[in-house]
Amino acid sequence: MYATLLPYHSLFRWLVLISLVFAVYKAYDGWRNKRTFSKLDNRVRHWTATIVHIQFTLGLILYFSSPLVDYFLNHFSEAVHLRSYRFFGMEHSLVMFLAVIVITIGSAKAKRKSSDQDKFKTMAIWFGIGLLLILSSIPWPFWPFESRPWIRAF
Q1: I want to staple 120 with a disulfide (CB 3.0 to 4.6 A). Which of 23, 30, 83, 87 is the partner?
Q2: What is the pLDDT of residues 67-103, one digit of tens each?
Q3: Is 66 helix (H, G, I), strand (E, B) or coil?
Q4: Which 8-state DSSP code applies to residue 142?
């Protein structure tokens, strides 16, 4: 299951990034230009959070089926000193978990705001922070700490 799911998780990250960048752009633009929070804006908020949650669910399944994480959890005192094991066993998963929490809170807060400007502002700030957290913990190919390919082969 791990080998099958890993390429989907890798590919789905692009959908997460595209939707978050688009949502942050729409929110900032609406906030700056004092637009009305439309049905489309609400759908963008909702679907961006949903896409992030789907990716998180894929990540959780991967986490508990990963040989790297299995080694990390069963040999913690040794693995915590090994960059790759520590990154996937602790750092990547923790930062992504925090990002999902931030995006979920931002989505819920934006949904409940009464003014359109508050909805846009809340969405721009919380989704922007979530996007930064995600960008900081993706194992990019150019990353000096832990790198993976742009897209994994199936």
Answers
A1: 30
A2: 999 999 999 999 999 988 999 899 999 999 999 999 9
A3: coil
A4: T
Q: What is the distance between the alpha carbons of residues 87 and 96, in angstroms, rounded to a whole number? A: 12
Quick one: which of 69, 105, 107, 74 has its CA closest to 88? 69
Q: Are 96 and 134 in contact (CB under 8 A)?
A: yes
Q: Which amino acid type is present at position 145?
A: F
Q: What residue segments make up the domains of the chain, in order of their start? A: 2-137
* Alpha carbon distance 147, 111 (integer Å): 36
Instruction: Provide CB contacts within 8 A for 110, sequence distance 6+.
Output: 27, 45, 118, 119, 120, 122, 123, 126
Of 5, 3, 12, residue with least CA distance to 151? 12
Q: How many residues in the chain?
A: 154
d(CA 91, CA 143): 14
CA 80, distance to chain mean position in Å, is 23
